[in-house]
Description:
With about 150 residues, this protein is an alpha+beta fold.
Amino acid sequence: MEIQWKCIAFDELNVHELYAIMQLRNEVFVVEQNCVFQDADNKDQYCYHLMAWHDNNLAAYARLVPPGVTYTEMSIGRVITASAYRGAGIGRQLLQQAILKCTLIFGKKPIKIGAQLYLKKMYESFDFQQIGEVYTEDGIDHIHMYRI
């Protein structure tokens, strides 16, 4: 499966890309995870948007957050793989690309994330370490993790 990667600032997104991002985020975070929350949080405008395209479909996505927007450190958020593409390793490729792009864009610095607890082992395989206790956000158990 050939994936085309694209990572651009918010102002560079075209309307079709923005629509695909919002549609996928709503499909997974709101509908699939049955989580009512305000996804449009006024952070997107400051972020870079990493997209994995396959046959004109948005297969996976992550938001690369500059230092000072969510945390003092840079962050990776809204990490998702479309249901049709799960199990093909795209999620792991996405995280690999997200770490690489964060380093290229923001410099080689620590990354802090708020991760869903069930994904802890996956993030640990990318050298993230849990910091702090489990907390509930939008009805889902999360943990903060840190990668140096």
